[in-house]
Amino acid sequence: MEIQVWDKCDPFARAPTRLRSSKGSPSCNKDILIKLQAYHDLPTLILEWRKLNMTISKVVGPMMRSKSHHSQLKMDRIYPVCQTLTATGRISLHEPNIQNIPRDFNIPLTERLKEKALGRRETRLLNSRLSRDPTQASVYKVSMRHAIVPRSGFLILAADYSQLELRILAHMSGDEKLCLALNKGHDVFKVIAAAWKRTPIEKISDDERQQAKQICYGMIIQTSLWESSGLWEEDASAFIHSFKATYPGIKDFMDKTLIDCRQRGYVETMNGRRRYLPKVTSGATQFVKAAAERQAINTTIQ
Fold it and tell me: Locate the DNA-directed DNA polymerase family A palm domain: which residues (predicted)?
């Protein structure tokens, strides 16, 4: 698949070698395809197909298999299995996993796609004045979250904390600059991006804010979220260096967390919940130890 895609797209030959796998061979993983969009239209199509295929196989299929009809409510219901005995203390759901339903996304519809999916008559109607929203005729919105609806007369309430992990990190690290940025009520990710770009906060774009958010949370949960942010590795590294220099209390807190974990063999959350991580000191390989260290930081904050 990877070699065929690269061979079919001549512009890929101009792509930097860093867009290939670690062994130098052609790669079509998500992070590579995001960067290859600048050289050809095909990566966008592949990413859209994968997103739709994942939605059907990981969301639609499991939900359809798990649903059962409720005769009194006159609607289909889903009853996931709730798992409370997790290592992190978090509650997880499965069969199906309704906590992992993807966000809404748009798929551009060409005339050929509309005719293939709807038929010529329906396509003409869609593009006519009879269409409810002709301005949206070229875009199809996929929203799996709207498949879950409340019973008649009830509502589903969606609530979320604002920048929760970052606020917990600021509290536990005691970093004065980060606490000040959060307490002022500013968009903290724009503040971080402005310091990184050395640009006035009002000139920070939504894309730059999102990149700062992804890399910031990547540091918090110890993953390489920068890979899917569209940034080159050296740009992400520059951001991380700038972030740690601007908020030195965070690095001190992370270092202290690892030192304490190596000494005691466990980490504690704010509420005193312990997670034992013996592999921090007794891991068979460096890879195993590094994974345990990531879990130590992740558990403490999340």
Answer: 143-302
